[in-house]
Amino acid sequence: MNQAQNFLKGILKENPVLILILGTCPTLAVTSSAQNGLGMGLAATFVLLCSNAVIAAIKDLVPDKVRIPIYIVVIAAFVTIVDLVMAAYTPALHKTLGIFIPLIVVNCIILGRAEAFAARNDVLSSVVDGAGMGVGFTLALTVLGAIREALGSGAVFGQKFLAGDGILLFVLPPGAFICFAFMIAAVNALNRAMAAKGKR
Amino acid sequence: MAKLASTFFNMFLSLLVVSSLSAGALGFVYSVTRSTIETSKLKEKADSLRAVLPDFDNDPLSEKIELNVEGERLLVYSAKKAGQDVGLAVETRTLKGYAGEIVLLAGLLPDGKIVNVVVLGHKETPGLGAKIDPAQSPFLKQFQGRNFLSTVPRVRKDGGDVDAITAATVSSRAVCDAIQKAYAVFKGEERPDGTTRATPRRKWGAQ
């Protein structure tokens, strides 16, 4: 598998949110607007890139029995760095994402990639894998956020295009589940169509 | 390079090294971002104060007082212009909302009239209780120019004259509760049960 395929698999074929169904807690909780989805996606992508790189670099120095605690310490350190940097330079976004930034630590995508990919591959492939997974996560969250914001408040990225309130259901948790299900179905259909064509 | 064997010593050493390096990195980032975080917090506070108070020329942030009202810590900022008291901002909070704490900043004129109220923090339901945020609905604006010195802020359902947010009566009641606490501070009154120890330097309501 070359690096381009390695990167692209995170976006459609192995999209962490829509195919692997990992990290659904932040996915459903923060996507009440497109901007929140994008912010969460970028923060998680940064953590994923750094943790994948570091874990791939130190994988031979980590005794098997304590690998999970060590991965968690590395991930938690990067998450805290993101938390502090966001509080300092993007206070408004930091306020809306609130508790979900510290919770990136327990986002299964990050530990999942560390365990399934970074611990078995070299640094470069792991960074590319992290970038692909991060972009896939960010795209899924931003699109989900945009759909919910458009239906729920008649706006996208805070730009109102409809007067009035929109369908409240889509801002609330049930709307997240409904949109999420439709997106999973759409991506599955797309993947199946591509497989039928015999490409990738 | 072969993987390190899981001996006690190796496990101890690798965890120690990784934890120490992480702690060092965090300490470094913390020391770099600390002043920026504090500045942005202060700036946010100063912007809110300017939004709820009339024009002032002192630094209310450096003249804040901390008071205990009904077991909660409330912060009080007094605004002066040319040495004259022009207003008082109370950072008031309540746990009576639908989810978590609601923190408001209420600015009052010396005669008890509300200049403006802003939301400093809340965790109300998006689309319902979150409408206490003035960016989302005109609910909070109705308090501008009101004076609850002799009456108590209550929603219509409870016999008052505050228009509650549709489907968010609990959040609306909580805002009323927080504003009432701000007035308790303002009056510096002693409650019958003695829970209020709000004693500003002088009684603001008694002018």
What is the helical fraction of chain A, as a range of percent?
55-70%
Summing up helix and strand content along with how strands pair, one would put the structural category of chain B as alpha+beta
State mean pLDDT of chain A (0 to 100 scale).
87
Question: What's the mean pLDDT score of chain B?
Answer: 82
Strand content of chain B: 15-25%
Radius of gyration of chain B over all CA atoms, rounded: 23 Å
- How are the strands ordered across the major sheet of chain A? 1-2
Total beta strands of chain A: 2
Order of helices and strands of chain A: HHHHHHHEEH
Number of helices of chain B: 2
Give the oligomeric state.
Answer: heterodimer
Number of domains of chain B: 1
Global morphology of chain A: globular
Low-confidence blocks of residues of chain A: none
Describe the structure.
The complex is a heterodimer of chains A (200) and B (207). With 200 residues, chain A is mainly alpha-helical. Chain A has one domain. Chain A is 67% helix and 2% strand. Chain A contains eight helices and two strands; from the N terminus they run αααααααββα. In chain A, a hairpin with a 2-residue loop joins strand 1 (155-156) and strand 2. In chain A, helix 3 packs antiparallel against helix 7. Chain A is globular. Chain A starts with a helix and ends with a helix. The mean pLDDT of chain A is 87. Chain B has 207 residues and is of the alpha+beta class. Chain B has one domain (51-206). Chain B is 31% helix and 20% strand. Chain B has two helices and five strands. Chain B has helices spanning 8-52, 169-187, and strands spanning 65-69, 72-81, 84-94, 102-108, 114-121. In chain B, strands 1-2-3-4-5 form a five-stranded antiparallel beta sheet, with helices on both faces. The termini of chain B are far apart.
